[in-house]
Amino acid sequence: MSDALRFADEYRDPDRARVLATRLAEAAGAEPDRTLRIMEVCGGHTHAIGRHGLGAHLPPNVEYVHGPGCPVCVLPRGRLDDAVALARDHDVTLCTYGDVLRVPGTHGSLLEARSAGADVRIVYSPLDAVALAAAEPGRQVAFLGIGFETTAPATAAAIVAADQQGLANFTVLCELVRVVPPLAALLDDPTTRLDGLIGPGHVSTIIGCTPYEELAERHRVPIVVAGFEPLDLLAATLAVVRQLREGRAEVENGYRRAVRWGGNPAALALLDDVFEVRDTFEWRGLGWIERSGYRIADRYAAHDAERRFDLPGIPSPDPRACRCGDVLRGAIRPDECRVFGTACTPEHPIGSCMVSSEGACAAAFRYGPDAGRSIVTVGARPR
User: Fold this and answer.
1) I need a labelling partner for 205 at 20 to 30 A (CA). Which of 236, 247, 320, 380 fits?
2) Structural domain total, the chain
């Protein structure tokens, strides 16, 4: 572990942010004419950066780039349309997380479907949906399983529980995705320039750090897994910049209090038992990416909503005015979308990035578009 990460890991004194910012300025000063673009992959990191105003602690030649780590945001409209159709057309009680309800689909959102009479319910855990199916065996109950490897084990546990209880009325619409393939796709894209990655903390509690090693080696980019406190993020940024200055491209674990290098063996075994990796999966803004999504394994096919119900399965592009896809690729900042904060707001969203609690547009709207960028004048010391 680098001294920067150890410094943040051992202490929680907010005053140490000044020390980290000073060290970051010194490290970045080695290449003053080059802007270092560091992507924070996780939407939770994006909101932490905005909430704590970490952009003000960055040197002028370092900037954060928002990544595709918001699971609600990356779900394409066609897949959301399947969920709306499941709730609206098949007399199914659809349970899901609250973030998903207001995401606009081609024919409206799940919230609008509920307003029109569909039975759509918010749950805090997929096991709540299993309990509902057990309590009402005459009702078809489906859970919209959405998220990265972070939430996938809970969905897998719900499928196993339903199978063990013999609940033939419980299914899952599986929209679970994997974090490494989209990062590889971004780094393979010649139009995307990323100098380093701040690895997602929550996902890494499940998959560990090992899966990032091939990315770092192949693309020559430093990857530092980080927690969600301000010092975590500043220390991870400093660790990335120091690797760049020293010509290194390695994976570092800056979230040792929660992340093991090899991940969570029990959770990984559960994923292997319940799911298979899809040959390809569509992502908002990134297109079709090989081996980037999960499907329910054949042994649990009875609980697969895609197999049980006739769903549209029709890809649908975003509205032309919406640039969520470009935000998710790090191609633009949220405020560079012409409908940001005007036609598109959290109350009346056009795109998913403005809806989710992990969305980059929602963060920029709430905390200001400059919260993730340096506002320090050239040559000035960090505040």
Assistant:
1) 247
2) 3
